[in-house]
Amino acid sequence: MTTFEAILLTIVTASTPLLIAALGELVTERSGVLNLGVEGMMVMGAACSFAAAVTFDSTLLGVAAGMLAGALMAALFALLVLGFAANQTGSGLALTILGLGLSGLIGAPFVGARRDPIAPVDIPVLSDIPIVGRLFFEQDLFVYASIVLTVLVGLYLMRTRSGLTLRSIGENHTSANALGLPVWRVRFWAILFGGACAGLAGAYLALVYTRFWSPGMTAGRGWIALALVVFAAWRPGWVLVGAYIFGAATVLQLHAQAAQFGVPSQVLSAVPYLATIVALLLLSIRHGRAIGAPGSLGVPFVPDR
Amino acid sequence: MRFELTPRTNSSTVMRIFASIAAFITAFLIAGFVIWLMGRSPLAAFDVYVLQPLSDPWSLQELIVKATPMALIAIGLSYCFRANLWNIGAEGQYVIGAVLGGWLALRTHGTDAGLWVLPLMLLLGILGGALWGLIPAFLKTRFGVNEILTSLMLVYVAQLTLDYLVRGPWRDPQGFNFPQSVTFDPAATLPPILEAGRVHYGAVFAAIAVVVTAVILGRTLFGYRLKLTGDAPRAARFAGFSSKATTLAVFAISGGLAGLAGISEVSGQIGQLQPSISPGYGFTAITVAFLGRLNPIGILVASLVVALTFIGGESAQIMLKLPLDLTQAFQGILLLCVLAADAMVSYRIRFVTRGGGK
Amino acid sequence: MFSGKVFGALAGATVLALSATGAVAQPKDKIKIGFIYVGPVGDHGWSYQHDQGRQAIEKAFPGKVTTTFVESVPEADSERAIEQLARTGHDLIFTTSFGFMEPTLKVAKKYPNIKFEHATGFKRNPNLSTYAAKFHEGRYIIGQIAGKMTKSNTIGYVGAFPIPEVIAGINAFYLGAQSVNPNVKIKIVFANTWYDPAKEGDAAKALLDQGVDMLAQHTDSPAPIQAAEARGKFGFGQASDMERFAPKAQLTAIIDDWSQYYVARAKAVLDGTWKSEDTWGGLASNMVVMAPYKNMPDDVKKLAQETEAAIRSGQLNPFKCPIIGQDGKEIECKGQGALSDQQVLGMNFYVKGIEDRIPK
Q1: Options 1.10.3470, 3.30.70, 3.30.1760, 1.10.10; which CATH number does A3-110+126-287 get?
Q2: How close B159 comes to chain C (CA, Å)?
Q3: Which pLDDT score is estimated for B113?
Q4: Which residues of C touch B (CB under 8 A)?
Q5: Is omega for the bond preceding A272 within 30 degrees of 0, making it cis?
Q6: What is the ipTM of this complex?
Q7: E strand spans, chain B
Q8: B68-319, what's its fold?
Q9: How many CB atoms lie within 10 A of CB C222?
């Protein structure tokens, strides 16, 4: 494997959890709900997936537990913002704080346990293509799943009737409600989907990426996922692009250090964050303000009587 | 079965206070249940978490010390949140305030600079925080960039800036190359209010901020303008209020107060610049602002409550060997309960069994 | 549940502390010892090892010593936690991170009858000792192993921050490697964190992608050595024995072993012989311990064992003069035949052969 291939491979794996979590949040936001609790759902996914994987010695059960934990956290959020029409920003932040604390309690007995790595899945023939072969056809299952998920979310939102319903509810819940569309039900499932994705991303971190549990191990990745949704202007394809760009910025700054440029490491560490700001800025300049943002995003829905 | 929400027209202050108390009780019950699940006595925990700190003068003093920066920052955030603008980068504004104010302390270190140093440091702190806060505000008003994300990303940039400075150019030359600046001179130190105490003048600033904010929000046109911008942006525009000017103003105010908190902590508490100068005050202040329902008095109370959970949490670790994570989980539960209670005051919630509301 | 019991002990201890006023320390029957940790107990690294030391005290003096700890104490807000321990009848308090230096000093001055011990700092008081470990001794040994074993002649180092302790570690590691392999090159990445498994793992992968086949780390999680294992390369555990995370990749580990020191200090308080001191222990005092040498040819193992014995006996000092700086000039030798302790503790230069520059 050449250095170039190796770096690309690392970038893809570093980007995958961001991609998965951001896709889930994208669906939630497209339905008009802003859930800032991605970090909390993700870290709960990590803790629960690892606990289940170690307890039952099964990666599959671990993944299921991670998704379930994320979805349960999301259900709590849904109860608040849909059931009680509570402030979405506040509820999302509360979810993050709760998740960070609760995951620490759940994970505590599993500190120090370890899991074996998951073998990469080699797709025959295709993986022999130079450069892209190794990159795209010899990855762990999560990487394939994340790409399939991107396509599915894109198809669902743009090509299905149900996706159209979800988008129109996100665009204007008052008129959607007037048309008889089930605002609450659609939003509930969209929030749950977002939570399950965040949980899956957490499971990836705990079971594949680091392969052990440590408190607060998501280290701000949930927030990056939120940024990616805005960066992508709420379009799934662009979430994929954005995730890979951010992953590349994170990984390449480390390579820049190893290549001995002599730039302070703090400057290089700041690059991914500055790049995100610049990307958001360029995007806004090109497309005008608030492009693609669902019209009802973050507004509590209380039907007129 | 489904929910049905109707806005209440008669949500009174009494109801809101009653709802807050109910939320607290609910949160305590949930936390007590978790503690019981962990095989500990909820009553003993309540004693250590709440009763003991409140019955001991030393803890009460520490409560004020801990609440001061959170109250200052949260008061500032309440301006933003009232206008429906989401500044979640107060942590970064706090850091840059400390950096800019700290610069003067280092610059005048070892000179005979007199009484003017400290006031100027505080002003620089406010300025630094305000400028850092204005970056996301400017990007939003000029280019429409989402302020939640830019303000958050700038937190990381601010922390790395401080990190670079104290490990590099601002390192104490006599400090064995350890990452910290020189200790501030007495002229650059925010004194304690009482000679032997730990409560510094930052607490006074926080108290002033509470009073001034209460007046501004309740009695001035600017306060009305914020409320209108947040609740009914279209109406605000018809009334001739520029949303751009409002955005810039509230970010400058909240950044400035966060910066003041930063420089106050560094010069009154820590006494030097070092890589880590905040245990996450800027983020915890968001919780405080919501717990206090964006009301200045409420925020003051909420900052003390959150400070209590931290101090009680430490006691619980020492005396009951309860883990730190419990404290954080409790803060999350408390915030969720208060938000739910708030919503219940604002809306009448009914369960409808069939069909209704479509 | 057992708060009543704690209360009894607490009240008793307070009385003891009050009665012990006066310069002469008295022997004590029962003491309480408190610990302040900067990270979670479960970090597998720095705080975890201090907690192992705490447990060793409990085992060594059953019934005589009770211990408590406060974990994840933020450095910027540690004064209260330290004072909390001082106020709750602890006789001896260990604060285990450099960032606790000023707050520990403040509290120590306020409570002259309580003994304090601060790890890795340099400010002392009649009731405040300092202690640290010479991890660079272990790093010289792993440097030799890496120098012998490398096939690509490129070895890597994941550092946390460019502070003197880490710089000294990098230099010792590289000097060790150079002593057995003059052509060896080193690549260094600072993760800018002590503990963020994913980030540390990314840093390790970046080094491995650049052709490094021997990986040393000075960050606390097992993520870097795990990355080496996944790529079929080799690495060295940090702070604790990380063999279970990387059974095929771990050649050895530099273990922080505080238990012997902690037990001795607890005994000194019990005996009434505690004095303010500055301790800098290494292999000889068992503060630094090497995990079993594994996954390497016998000749490399033998070399490592010999070097370890030589350092232990004082025959070999990793920073023996002449030490040549990056610019080719010899560093002034302020110690006896080697760099002085002060020079090592405040090290801010790379030795000749390291092509990187210290980030300033």
Answers
A1: 1.10.3470
A2: 11
A3: 78
A4: 1-3, 6, 34, 40, 68-72, 74-77, 79-81, 83-85, 87-88, 98-99, 102, 122, 161-164, 192, 342, 345-348, 359-360
A5: no
A6: 0.84
A7: 2-7, 347-352
A8: ABC transporter involved in vitamin B12 uptake, BtuC (1.10.3470)
A9: 33
